[in-house]
Amino acid sequence: MMSGLEMGRVLDNHPVTRDWFVMDIAAPATAQKCQPGQFLHIRPIPTYDPLLRRPLSIYDVLSASGIISLLYRVAGRGTSLLAKAEPEDNIDIMGPLGRGFTIPMENESIILVGGGVGVAPLMYLARVSLERRCRVKLLLGAANATQLGAAKRFERVGAQVKTASLDGSAGRHGLVTDLLEEENPSDYSRIYTCGPVPMMARVSAWAKTHDMWGEVSLEEHMACGVGACLGCACQLNALQPGYAKVCKDGPVFNIDAVELSPDQGGKEKCLE
Ligand SMILES: Cc1cc2nc3c(=O)[nH]c(=O)nc-3n(C[C@H](O)[C@H](O)[C@H](O)COP(=O)(O)OP(=O)(O)OC[C@H]3O[C@@H](n4cnc5c(N)ncnc54)[C@H](O)[C@@H]3O)c2cc1C
Ligand code: FES
Fold it and tell me: Residue 38's closest CA among 6, 7, 66, 3?
């Protein structure tokens, strides 16, 4: 479906932890077109400063009421401005953009692995999959209990959730991939993941070991967001020549197409 521009209306914008926010936007035209895993390219305030839009995953959609939700971490200038938005403010959105997740068939059993704010694109996937009567399990990892708040939203739509925190304040003390190691791969037909690169690398290794079909959602610095500037180009796999544009060919890629390193520090670059 075609993406477009829409002036959304902020309905709510509240902190869920110190620097994480959930924003609900009334954007009926865009909401009808969103697919899980796609993103919106957002102008944080209605001026050209900062010049570039900021990409944020579609966290959830209530298409009947035309509401799109975002889950975002305040990282710098653009997201700080976004955090100041108040109900009734207008917000300039472009989207939905990019290639989203492959939706499972009816009655499939799928597992989602999210790390930190990387859980954002998995929520709408869970909702749509549950509407197809799929069984959905989320493994969610974060630094601490307050960052695991998204778990409740998944549970409300009917997903089974297991959590892990690095400081042990909620769920398993440790990494979300420790939870994955305890899962029986034959219980699932598909795996989907988004989060820090080292986490996705471990998820990818697990999927490959068990010959499981999967998809990863990548992040890359973006400018145009629509495939025109090469700002987000990156090599996905050393064995395959050429570059992919994360904004247009992704952000979701098949797990077999992407080579991820468990030693890679941040989540910003898909491959460096
Ligand atoms: C497809 C896609 C979906 C995303 N979805 C979400 C989401 O749902 N929630 C969320 O919190 N964040 C998400 N991000 C990351 C988000 O776009 C950046 O955090 C944001 O653009 C930073 O803008 P800023 O002006 O606040 O920070 P800046 O001042 O521009 O940068 C601050 C810090 O953030 C890093 N950064 C900047 N742009 C990106 C980027 N595109 N990806 C990763 N790191 C970046 C910079 O390297 C720097 O360290 C997504 C990114 C992509 C590409
Ligand atoms: S951001 Fe311009 S090509 Fe992807």
Answer: 3
Longest Cα–Cα distance in the chain: 51
By the 10 Å C-beta count (0-12 exposed, 13-18 middle, 19+ buried), 158 is classed as middle
CB 40 within 8 A of CB 72: no
Q: What is the pLDDT of residue 48?
A: 67
- Averaged pLDDT for residues 147-174: 97
Taking a C-beta distance cutoff of 8 angstroms, is the pair 36, 128 a contact? yes
| Structure tokens, 40 | 């919106």
pTM, rounded to two decimals: 0.95
> What pLDDT, in 10s, does the model give residues 164-188?
999 999 999 999 999 999 999 999 9
User: How much is the pLDDT for 263?
Assistant: 78
Dist CA 266 CA 272 (whole Å): 11
Ligand 1: lining residues by beta carbon, under 6 Å: 39, 54-57, 71-73, 75-79, 117, 120, 219-222, 251, 268
Q: Give the residue, out of 122, 219, 245, with the most ligand 1 atoms within 8 A of its beta carbon, to mutate for a pocket test.
A: 219
Sketch out the chain's domains with CATH numbers.
4-97 (2.40.30.10), 109-257 (3.40.50.80)
- 82-133 pLDDT, tens per residue? 999 999 999 999 999 999 999 999 999 999 999 999 999 999 999 999 999 9
Rounded to the nearest angstrom, the distance between the alpha carbon of 243 and the centre of ligand 2 is: 12
How many Å lie between the centroid of ligand 1 and the Cα of residue 55?
7
Q: Return the exposure string of 70-83: e unless at least 16 CB atoms fall within 10 Å of the residue's CB, then b.
A: bbbbbeeebbebbb
How wide is the angle at C-alpha 267 spanned by C-alphas 52 and 122, nearest 5°? Answer: 85
Q: What is the pLDDT of residue 39?
A: 98
